[in-house]
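My main concern about presentation is that the manuscript never shows what a single data entry looks like. Each protein is reduced to its one-letter sequence and a matching series of backbone shape codes. For the editor and my fellow referees, an illustration may be useful. For illustration, here is how one protein appears when written out as sequence plus structure tokens:
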Amino acid sequence: MKHKTYFMIVGCVTGLVSLVHLVRAITGTSIFINDWMFPIWLSWVAVLVAGFVSYMSFKFASRD
């Protein structure tokens, strides 16, 4: 697999993860893992981290 293809796939997947966390944070949907409630603020952090990884992946893909 070429580097460009890899970075495009990673960018799309992490962009989708970021979008799902953004929707979850805006709507306030509760997520429970066993007995632990996944806090809303953690989704905002995930939006930033996954969004940054997605951005950098697309940036690296455009280098080639």
User: Anything to note?
Assistant: Helices lie at 3-27, 40-63. The chain is about 75% helix and 10% strand. The first strand starts at residue 31 and ends at 33. Residues 18 and 33 are 19 Å apart (CA to CA).
